């Protein structure tokens, strides 16, 4: 580096920031406020230097780790001396997390040496008694922030379990939301064994109750199919969206025919109003509040009633002939991007929601569209359209699929959600893509419908895609 006192740069005052025994300075012309560290919300798929989001002065800013901008050890964020520095002008959407703020210093131009450098983090050296203060170019270090960086060790068994524990701590459960007639109903995902297309062979059973459609063979297991719509007083209508939900209770298996599947949603106990003992209709356990919609929760009593009413034809699994080579089905959420169909494993999906406005985030990676707020929780929105080079749709019936990831939940815009289905491994073919995005191809409708199954490492879908 060469020293150049004749540099046209002119810094009048700096704020001194300490990292261990090293002093750095930034021009006070760029500084708004100096604050104690507020709560920080981590941001999935964020660049390495981004610590998350925080609320400042009634707004949300992106918090950058000053140490990481300079390639140093990360700021703890909880030490007593740690501070947040808000920025002005074009950087007002950003703030800096620093180890320690000491004092501001008016610059004696005889004691500052401007460095004749291009594209460097340090642009000047200030001599303050026995201390050398390195003046940092925020414009450069912020402009040089790397694209999405997900360390390989982030996707570890420990990290995944930590994420699951965090989700459980929020006391939320996932529900399959479906339609019968014009009404919406829900069942806990954990109560479902699998979900089938309704275009299967069902053998009618003479003398059975009105709600019984018949019996089908499901991998050498005989399963009675009941029309849940008729049981709840709706007129059944045949359609391509009809589905059969397979449930299991008291060691007995039953198929339930419904009109169509709407979404998967994650609800907390606060979203549910239990109807209690005064409820006359024992088929409904409660009502779920989903924004301005009310969703009726199917009760266990309803399933038990169906099993009891038809106990003469629904036999225990202990006496049902089941193949010794029974296979484990894979439940997937199938959706469209452009003209093609793709799928996530249902284990990766937290919920599916309607379109909602997205807030852009400063210094976000190219493949990040922004963030949304779901019931007070910040969710990063990644763009699979950009990742796959697919044009982004403009119609209003898109959905957002919210997935679990080690650093928080990630949402993806999709054109439409096609299905929630259980897939037999025999319907899948291994076909690892060159970019590692896909692991298998699902063959539906006798191979006429092909669905690409994304790898389960959700957090790496957009890695290296800048």
What this model shows, in words?
This protein has 466 residues and is mostly beta strands. It folds into three domains: 13-143, CheA-289, Domain 4 (OB fold (Dihydrolipoamide Acetyltransferase, E2P)), CATH 2.40.50; 171-309, CheA-289, Domain 4 (OB fold (Dihydrolipoamide Acetyltransferase, E2P)), CATH 2.40.50.180; 330-460, CheA-289, Domain 4 (OB fold (Dihydrolipoamide Acetyltransferase, E2P)), CATH 2.40.50. Helices cover 9% and strands 44% of the residues. The protein has six helices and 33 strands. The chain has helices at residues 66-69, 138-143, 157-169, 228-231, 300-309, 384-388; strands spanning 13-19, 22-27, 31-36, 50-56, 59-65, 83-87, 94-98, 100-106, 112-114, 122-128, 131-136, 172-180, 183-188, 192-197, 212-218, 221-227, 243-249, 252-258, 260-268, 272-274, 284-290, 293-298, 330-337, 340-345, 349-354, 368-374, 377-382, 399-403, 410-414, 416-423, 428-430, 438-444, 449-454. The strands form six sheets. Strands 8-1-2-11-10-9 form a six-stranded mixed β-sheet. Strand 21 (284-290) and strand 22 (293-298) form a beta hairpin. The chain is elongated and about 100 Å long. The two termini are 32 Å apart. Residues 1-8, 146-169 and 319-323 have low confidence and may be disordered.
């Amino acid at each position: 580096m060469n020293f150049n006192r004749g540099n046209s740069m002119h810094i009048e005052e700096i704020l001194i920031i300490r990292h261990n025994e090293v002093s750095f300075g930034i021009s006070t012309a760029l500084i708004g406020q100096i604050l104690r560290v507020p709560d920080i919300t981590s941001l999935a798929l964020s660049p390495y230097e981004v610590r998350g989001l925080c609320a400042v002065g009634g707004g949300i800013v992106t918090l950058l780790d000053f140490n990481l901008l300079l390639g140093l050890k990360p700021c703890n964020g909880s030490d007593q001396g740690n501070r947040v520095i808000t920025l002005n002008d074009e950087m007002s959407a950003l703030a800096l997390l620093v180890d320690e703020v000491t004092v501001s210093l008016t610059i004696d131009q005889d004691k500052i040496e401007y460095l004749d450098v291009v594209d460097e983090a340090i642009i000047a050296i200030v001599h303050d008694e026995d201390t050398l203060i390195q003046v940092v170019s925020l414009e450069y270090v912020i402009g040089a922030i790397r694209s999405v960086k997900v360390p390989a060790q982030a996707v570890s068994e420990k990290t995944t379990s930590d994420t699951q524990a965090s989700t459980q701590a929020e006391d939320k459960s996932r529900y399959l939301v479906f339609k019968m007639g014009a009404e919406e109903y829900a069942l806990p995902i954990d109560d479902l064994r699998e979900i089938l297309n309704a275009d299967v062979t069902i053998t009618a059973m003479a003398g059975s109750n009105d709600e019984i459609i018949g019996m089908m063979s499901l991998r050498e297991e005989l399963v009675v199919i009941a029309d849940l719509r008729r049981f709840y007083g709706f007129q059944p209508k045949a359609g391509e969206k009809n589905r059969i939900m397979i449930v299991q209770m008291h060691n007995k298996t039953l198929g339930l025919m419904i009109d169509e599947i709407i979404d998967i949603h994650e609800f907390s106990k606060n979203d549910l109003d239990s109807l209690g003992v005064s409820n006359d209709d024992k088929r409904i356990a409660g009502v779920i509040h989903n924004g301005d919609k009310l969703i009726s929760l199917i009760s266990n009593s309803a399933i038990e009633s169906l099993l009891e009413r038809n106990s003469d034809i629904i036999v225990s699994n202990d006496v049902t002939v089941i193949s010794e080579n029974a296979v484990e089905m894979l439940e997937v959420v199938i959706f469209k991007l452009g003209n093609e169909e793709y799928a996530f494993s249902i284990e990766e999906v937290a919920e599916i929601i309607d379109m909602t406005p997205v807030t852009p985030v400063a210094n976000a990676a190219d493949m990040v569209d922004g963030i949304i707020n779901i019931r007070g929780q910040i969710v990063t929105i990644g763009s699979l359209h950009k990742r796959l080079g697919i044009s982004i749709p403009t119609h209003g019936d898109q959905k957002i699929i919210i997935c679990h990831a080690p650093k928080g939940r990630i949402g993806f815009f999709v054109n439409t959600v096609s299905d929630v289905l259980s897939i037999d491994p025999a319907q899948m073919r291994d076909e690892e893509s060159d970019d590692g995005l896909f692991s298998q191809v699902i063959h539906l409708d006798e191979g006429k419908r092909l669905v690409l199954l994304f790898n389960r490492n959700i957090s790496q879908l957009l890695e290296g895609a800048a």
